Amino acid sequence: MYSLNLEIMKPTDFSKYISDFISRYLPNEKGASANTITAYRDTFVLLLSFTQNKKHVKIEKLTLEKITKETITEFLDWIQMERKCSNSTRNSRLAAIHSFYRYLQHESLDYLHECQKILSIKFKKTKTESINYLSIEGIKLLLQQPDTTTSKGRRDLTLLSLMYDTGSRVQEVIDFTPSMLRLNKPATIKIIGKGNKARLVPMLDAQTEHLKNYLMENRLDEPFANMYPLFFNSRKEKLTRAGINFIVQKYTKMARKENRMIIPEKISCHTLRHSKAMHLLQAGVNLVYIRDILGHVSIQTTEIYARADSKQKRDALEKAYVNVNPDEEPMWTKDENLITWLKKF
Fold this sequence. Notes:
mainly alpha; DNA polymerase, domain 1; hpI Integrase, Chain A; 16 helices; 3% strand; elongated
């Protein structure tokens, strides 16, 4: 009986490789961020749930041999049909699976053929959503909404203005600590982005003043608070995605009541990041600098703002416009019979 239990508890090759992929390869070799690792982990939790509940394969008996291209395809169909996931979510799950099988094909030649078959599964096309951003007037109106007579209102104003001025992602804002700030001129903030890549972003004087006052008020300028969360809730815990989204939605509704024309109905936390990028572009800032401020890996990602900016397109067309029409009316318009006029040549 004892030996039988040992046999049952013996790790499978799948459990061995997936554990190594999540705990060693992603953080150490690939340098993936905590968010990426969590997303990949969640994908495989879903896959295990699918194989156990739909394919009736117990987790402790799941081997690499039992996970084929057909299994992965069925899993992707399942998350879309039963879990109602979008093409974008499906593609994110597939990206995690592809990453694992790219790792696996270098670790075990035994499964090279199946790895390549799974890696051949294609991503689905997704709709290209238009970029949702606020005008400068819209940003000003939004930032006028927090009640600066209260400590929470002052925190929210500092948070929203920093999100906009630095073009930060939500997770980057969540991870801000006082140690990342340099408030002496020229003021900068160190932002840790995707893949744990750091970038320095300059800050304007007005933003620096907001931060100085906020730090003093909350004693975040003391040495002991260096690694505290820059923005926190009533329990002194760093804000969550849901918490920051609540703040953005709260003031969006207030601003929209004042002026529906300049505040779109749907605004997300990412809207502030989009707004900063568009405003930099409209001010004539080079795409390379915008890329570095936003922390994009490729300039091609940043180019979506140039394609989306209809105002810039219109201005460029107006500048390039040359009236090529002659002042005189064309001769053939005076002739009732165009064919007769053409035959003269």
